[in-house]
Prior knowledge:
This protein is an alpha/beta fold. It is built from 13 helices and 9 strands.
Amino acid sequence: MLAIVCPGQGSQTPGFLSPWLELPGQRELLASLGEAAGVDLVAHGTESDAETIKDTAVAQPLIVGAGLTTLSALLDGATLPSSTVVAGHSVGEFTAAAAAGVLAPTEAMSLVSVRGRAMAEASAVTPTGMAAVLGGDPDEVLAALERHGLTPANMNGAGQVVAAGTLEQVAALAAHAPAKARVIPLQVAGAFHTHHMAPAVEALAARAAEVSPSDASVTLLSNADGTAVGSGTDALARLVSQVSNPVRWDLCMETLLSLGVTGLVELAPAGTLVGLAKRAMRGVETLALKTPDDLEAARRMISEHGAAASTTPDATPDATPDATPSASDARPSAS
C-alpha cells in the first residue's frame, strides 16, 4: 500500500522550486495556484530569500502550492491508486485534502492563504514561539512542558515533540532541558496549534463556510487523532480546528502502519516526514521527492506499492459528516 505525505511549514528553503518549474506546464500551474492565494508563488519559490519565505503568510501558501505542483508532475495526468493513503503535517493537511479530492486545488490555496495571514496576525498579539524537544523520556518531556506552561503542539513521534508557548516559557524550557533531551528553538512567528491561535480559527472558519467540500476519493488521515476521514464536511471542519489544536503526527504514522503501508512518498519540499518515518516506520520504503530527478523512483513506488489494499477493519474511512532524530532530520514542521 502506498502513502503520499505532505510536509508543513519549516521545510521550505530558498529556490527549492526552481528545478520543478523547468518541467512543461509547472510554472503555469504554480502561477495559477498563486493567483488563487493572492501570493506570487513563482517568485517566492525561486527568488525570495530565507527571511521572506519564513513569513507565515508566505510560507503556508508556498508549502501547499509546492506540494500540489509536484504532485501534478508526479502523476502526469494519471490519478492516485484508489488504495492510496494521504496525510499532511499541519498546513500540509490542505495539500492532502486537495490530493484526496476533498478540496479543489484553488479552494485549498484560497483557504490556506486566509490561514497564513490570520495566523501571522494572531502571532503578533503576544510574543510566542516554539521549540523542538529531541530525545529524553517521553513522560519526563511532557512533564517538563507542563511545568513550564507549554503546549505539546506537535507530537511528531520518533522522539520528537514541539513545544509552544510564550517566549519566556520557551526560554525557560531551553534553560532547563529534560534529561537526555535537546531543546532547539524554532524560527517561527508564534505558538501555532495552541490557544494563542484562536483568532485565526475564527477567520478560517468564516472562509470555510463558503466552501462545499467533496468526500475523500482515497483514504485521508487527520492530524487530530490519526483516523481516516471520508466525509468532506468532517475533513474541512478538522482543517479549521487544527489551527489551535496539537498535531498528532505520531498517531498518523501509527495508522499508516496499521493500514499496511509499504511505501511512502513525501511531496516537496520533502525530507522532514521521511526522516521521521525512517525511525518510526521501519521496514517501509520511503522517498523524499525533492527534485524532478526523483520522479522516476517515485513513479516506480506508485506502481509497486499502489496495488495493495488494506484489510484492516478499523482503517476504513469514516463516511459520516505535523528512535531520536539526528540533527539533519530535526527540522520540524511547525504549522
